[in-house]
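Tutorial, part two.
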Amino acid sequence: MSENCFHCGQDIEKERISFDEKIFCCNGCKSVYEILNINNLSNFYELNKR
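Running the prediction step on this input gives:
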């Protein structure tokens, strides 16, 4: 079963980073998630669900 990055949605093939009960493909995606979350902008992820 393939996993997808919480931020960019890419398939995770090599590097798998777990943070805040979410999975990321790289430190860049994890960092963007942290920045959005710290600044109360995590609703960004709801936009992709539409």
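The mean pLDDT is 92. In part three we will examine how such features are distributed along the chain.
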